[in-house]
Amino acid sequence: MRPMLLACLVWLLLMPITPAPPARAVGFTVTSPLDAPDANPGDGICATAIGVCSLRAAVQEANATLGPDTITLAPGVYVLGIGGRGEDAAATGDLDVTRPLTIAGAGAGSTIIDGNAADRILHVIGPIAVQLNGLTLRNGSVPRPADISLDGGGGAIYVVGGGFLSLNNVSVSGNTATSGAIAIDDGGSLTATGSTFSGNTASFGAALFTNGSATIANTTISGNTSSSSGGAIYARQGSLSVVNSTISGNSASSSTVGGGGILIAVGANATISGSTLSGNNATNGGAIHTRGSLSLVNSTLSANAARNGGGGLYVGGGSATLSNATLNANSADVQGGGILNSGGSAIVRNSIVANSPSGGTCAGQVTSAGYNLDGAQTCAFAGPGDLAGINPQLGPLQNNGGTTMTHALLPLSPAIDAGNACESIDQRGQRRPTDGNGDGAARCDIGAFEAPGVSVPLVIPLPANAPATLSPAGTATPTSTASPASAPPTAAPARTAVPPTAVRVAAPPRPDEATATESATWVVVTEPTEAISADDDTLGIVQAGEWYVVIAEEDDWLLVASDPAWPFWIQEDERVEVHRP
User: For the ranges 156-160, 302-306, 326-330, 453-457, which has the lowest average pLDDT?
Assistant: First the structure.
């Protein structure tokens, strides 16, 4: 054997052998809430120096494997108590994750990881997929540098290097940072489903700060506070999608920018659909402040407030397009209670902007693409089918079905069947269009809510000895006696008049004299009069010239209807003429 070959063989035999990390996925079940490192990271065994499997030890072992791992957490509180920022091996401070990982808890209400206000909770490093299921992340904290740098980002989770983060049934609460309880950097991504973000604080985007892509679905973001901009979300770059979610009660304190709910920066684009933003506040853009690209579809902005402009929406640049949106009761101390366009493009179609307590409904140039309803006359809508100076007759913000709260269209709403070319479903997921006024033709409603369809022919349920029923053609014919359950109230309630407001009400055709004389009692309104529901709520104003069939009479009140599903009371006085058979 040649001397050189022999020497090489001897060297190979004497060379120390370094074991490769395990190549297959390994599962770890945490057995102790103790925060302690793994005794021998990389040996495939999750065990601290005292032989228990801690969360930190499980993360260290998962980082030592090549394949994806799952860590299972039982109910309990797991407090991270080992201080020491600045290292990326999960030995101290936050839990650094460098391999694909799933952490599965027993539910957000029972499995809690607590950052102890000592460091952030998770640091996701590199283009890996990390999924969290059924747990709470709370009390994470990182220092706040004086600028927007993400070095101080992610009080709960910081994703760098293009990672992919997925949250399912996760609660993110009480975390602090410069930028976001969750911070996404380097083009990474977040998908949050069925989760909650609450009580987080930051300078920018208290719940979420993103320089990548983020999808928020069936999630609630509430009660978060930004000392600058983006009370809930700050989309700095990339894309943001908010679907079937609620963003409420968040605030941003910047004296110049804002976005109490969401701030969309110049380099970002956002799509918001099937969602409600309510009770948020900021200087500019109580609910939304956009300088990038925004599409708001089948969504509601309600009771948001701006200290300057744009209580519902502030457009500071870029473009904003609204389709089948309802902006109700938003306010601004200076201008644009509903919408303020201060330098971009704002295009609105099939939408309601109304009931702003201050600032007017719109300010700046807001372009109509048709079929909008301006509750005041400040939006200057001039498209086909636009309505101005009309009360939309909205119900309160409440659960009307679906995953988010909405403002229902009351029976006399002029927005019913007044839209065109609408979205295929409404905010609740109900199909569009429906025949909401019973005229036999299905047509879109204006706004985020589609009123239920009215079946035809119309058959009005009448109490005993009531005068008549209404046929599809509007002619009155005799009817059979109804059950006692449909009888009118025993006494007419006290009702208060409201000032006349222009409200369009669908009414039956005027009956011919022969039909009216032979069977039914009809009433025609000669001056605008108030309509009161069977539950004693004010519905709106009935215009002069409308005919209704009388269902019942009680003292000086008449129960009338043009639609069997929507009877209402009007007062029998000089404003109506009664035509009896």
Answer: 453-457
Helix (H, G, I), strand (E, B) or coil at 62: helix
Place of tokens 């403002």: 407
| Residue whose structure tokens are 């709960």 | 156
Yes or no: say if 62 and 99 are a contact pair by the CB < 8 Å rule: yes
pLDDT, residue 104, reads 98
Task: Convert the pLDDT of each residue in 22-43 to its tens digit.
Answer: 444 469 999 999 999 999 999 9
DSSP string, 499-527: ---------PPPPPHHHHHHT--EEEESS
Cβ distance 443 to 420 under 8 Å?
yes
**Contacts for 350 with CB less than 8 Å, ≥ 6 apart:** 323, 324, 370, 371, 372, 419, 420, 421, 422, 423, 444, 446, 447
Continuous segment of H or E residues that includes residue 59: helix 55-63
> Domain limits of the chain?
26-217, 257-456, 469-579
The two tokens of residue 166 are 């997925």
pLDDT in tens, 344-380: 999 999 999 999 999 999 999 999 999 999 999 999 9
